[in-house]
Amino acid sequence: MKLVIGSDHGGYQLKEEIKKLLKELTIDFEDWGTQDARPEDYPIIARQVGEAVAAGQFERGILVCGTGIGVSIVANRVHGVRAALCGDVFSAAMSREHNDANILCLGGRVIGCGLADMIVTTWLETKFAGGRHARRIGLIDSLE
Ligand code: RB5
């Protein structure tokens, strides 16, 4: 799986922690910034990551801002993106199984590294269930 990760300053620290996990899991990923804790506008990075995933350049994306809310709002404006803001493991699993989420959004000022690692691992490992859920994804796509 090829993955892209990005954050603003509010998510920078957690992004760096998640990168360590991705390396341990031998996930092939690119870091599209930001590269330090200086203020960065989250709509810019979230749009870039969203468009790259929607275009098929990457299978999945992870976005981190302070709350995860800003990046999820932006990413979900991109046609073909199904971004899920997750603060617990159950939601992470369901976002894959039922929603076929292709971008995971996290709040760097909301959750700690331990929980984030469990959420990311679950989100990466859980497969889309298809069936009736595929029909519902089709209904989402018809809105766009
Ligand atoms: C930046 O201060 C903060 O607004 C941003 O990281 C994010 O939480 C927005 O939703």
Notes on the structure:
- With 144 residues, the chain is an alpha/beta fold.
- The chain is 45% helix and 17% strand.
- The protein has helices at residues 12-24, 42-54, 69-75, 89-97, 113-125, 132-141, and strands spanning 2-7, 28-31, 60-65, 83-85, 103-107.
- Strands 2-1-3-5-4 form a five-stranded parallel β-sheet, with helices on both faces.
- Helix 1 (12-24) packs across helix 5 (113-125), helix 2 (42-54) crosses helix 3 and helix 4 (89-97) packs parallel to helix 5 (113-125).
Topology summary:
Elements: E1 2-7, H1 12-24, E2 28-31, H2 42-54, E3 60-65, H3 69-75, E4 83-85, H4 89-97, E5 103-107, H5 113-125, H6 132-141
Parallel strand pairs: 1-2, 1-3, 3-5, 4-5
Helix pairs in contact: 1-5, 2-3, 4-5
D-ribose (RB5) binds next to α3.
